[in-house]
Amino acid sequence: MLFIRHFIRLLYLVSHMLLGLFALMVVGAAIVSLAEGMNFWKAMYLTFITAATIGYGDVVPVTVVGRITCILMGLLGLMFFGIVVAVTNRALAHAIEEKHGIRHADGIENPHTPRSVAKAMVKARQPIDPIGPG
């Protein structure tokens, strides 16, 4: 449940980028639809299959404008899915850090890490032994 909470929170933070990329994909589908003379929904299918870098090959662009647009849709897809992968990675890291009490961007800190112990010792004005015990 920790992962899902962090995932949704982080997705919300980048939602404007994802929606912008999605909107550009819809515009790309409209351009492909006009350039290729195909149904808009078929062009949407082509755009999203291209953006996901799947490329079944059942629908292909034949005009220069359609091909260039599909290349751009592939690059937009890389950005879109790259953001989703980065959010997933960060959400997983936050969940693990929170579960184990490690400090992360949200300010949660494990009181037993060397940095936390050093801070506590400085605050208590105790000398810090750089070599360690023993």
Question: Quick one: CATH class?
Answer: Mainly Alpha
- Average of pLDDT: 85
Structural class of the secondary structure composition? Answer: mainly alpha
CATH fold name: Helix Hairpins
Beta-strand percentage? under 5%
Tell me what the CATH architecture is.
Orthogonal Bundle
Shape: rod-shaped
How far the N terminus sits from the C terminus, by CA atoms, comes to 42 Å
- How many separate domains? 1
Sheet having the most strands: none
**Overall helicity:** 55-70%
Work out the number of β strands: 0
Radius of gyration: 24 Å
Helix count, per DSSP? 5
Order of helices and strands: HHHHH
The residue ranges in which pLDDT falls below 50 over 5 or more consecutive positions are: none
Would you kindly provide a written description of the structure presented here, covering whatever features stand out?
With 134 residues, the protein is an all-alpha fold. It has one domain: Helix Hairpins (Orthogonal Bundle). 69% of the residues lie in helices and 0% in strands. The protein is built from five helices and no strands. Helix 3 (40-51) packs across helix 4. The radius of gyration is 24 Å and the shape is rod-shaped. It starts with a helix and ends in an 11-residue tail after the last helix.
